[in-house]
Amino acid sequence: MLVSQVWTYPVKSMIGQQVDAVELDATGIIGDRTWAVRDLERGGIRGAKKIGPLMRLAARDIADGHVEITLPDGTTVRSCDDGVDQLVSSAVDRQVRLERLRPADDLEHYRRGAPDSDDMLAELNGIFGREEGEPLPDFSVFPPEVMEYESPPGTYYDAFPLLVMTTSALTSIARALPDSNADVRRFRPSVVIDTPGEAGHPEFAWAGSRATIGTATVEFNAPCPRCVMVTREIDESIPADRAVLRHIVRDLDQNVGVYATVVEPGSIRVGDELRFTSG
Q1: 144 lies in which domain range?
Q2: How many domains does the chain have?
Q3: pTM across the whole model
């Protein structure tokens, strides 16, 4: 099994960039999700679970730790430019401010903002895109700190630093949804592994095991429960599509891909082999 794709996401919930190689430290991919937006109306760092149009913007790294953001109309703005916050706010139809990742001990920076509903079930169904009668995820798979904070403090990840998918999974979803566009960008993987000859979603069975990928060692934690983000519009060719999530909830036990953490830092590049070391 070889690495087919590697992705980084310089700004939380914006479309990322496909790269040839990445370096990993103990917290994940270096340079991944180092920026995010703060909701100036409801408070808190927010992603596309709450501000869906963020997924219509794309971001790439530039010099000195800054990022360049491509807006839906094709124009670009840099994080160091005057007026960047207003341009991004206009693009997502919400007053937001672009903010850089802060240290883990700055807990107030990461604290969740106000919910959109006083009804907790309605709030969770909105975040996870669930329809009446559909189950919510098993919240025990998430780190406990994300109940209080938007992300584990010191990171802008939703839960875990890496999301690994297989080419088999992408093919399986596309076959199950012939009328949908199951583009890889909907699912926001860090690494896609080529799994020739495999069917379905083989990565689900990797949970609890360790593997080397390139010179890094990772531990697979649990299949990734999916939320409303997989339904969001990215562009005209990848429109909003609730059918994607209906298939995931109904047929895939709510999951696509598998979460992973870094056991030993190293590098991962396209073409590297995945080798299991335990499990």
Answers
A1: 2-33+110-278
A2: 1
A3: 0.94
Pairing of strands 162-166, 191-194: parallel
**Residue 165: inside a domain:** yes
Rounded to the nearest 10 degrees, the angle between the axes of helix 242-251 and helix 167-176 is: 110
Quick: pLDDT tens for 6-64: 999 999 999 999 999 999 999 999 999 999 999 999 999 999 999 999 999 999 999 88
For 109, the 3-state DSSP assignment is helix
CATH number at residue 223: 2.40.33.20
Strands 45-46 and 58-61: unpaired
Q: Average of pLDDT values for 235-246? A: 96
Is the alpha carbon torsion for 110, 144, 205, 132 positive or negative?
negative
Q: Which amino acid is at 143?
A: P
DSSP structure string for 31-92: TTT-EEEEETTT-SEE-TTT-GGGGG-EEEE-GGG-EEEE-TTS-EEETTSTTHHHHHHHHH
C-alpha 178/C-alpha 224 separation (Å) is: 23
Q: Using the 8-state DSSP alphabet, how is residue 170 labeled?
A: H
Instruction: Give alpha helix (H) positions in 82-205.
Output: 84-92, 107-110, 120-128, 167-176
Using CA atoms, how far apart are residues 248 and 85, in angstroms rounded to an integer? 35
Q: What confidence tens digit (pLDDT) does each residue in 58-101 have? A: 999 998 899 999 999 999 999 999 999 999 999 999 999 999 99
Residue 226 lies in a domain: yes
Q: Does 102 map to a domain?
A: no
In a domain, 168, yes or no: yes
Q: How far apart are CA 151 and CA 148, in angstroms?
A: 9
**Closest listed residue to residue 220, CA positions, set 191, 200, 252, 195:** 191
Q: Identify how many contiguous H helices and E strands the chain contains and give both numbers.
A: 5, 17
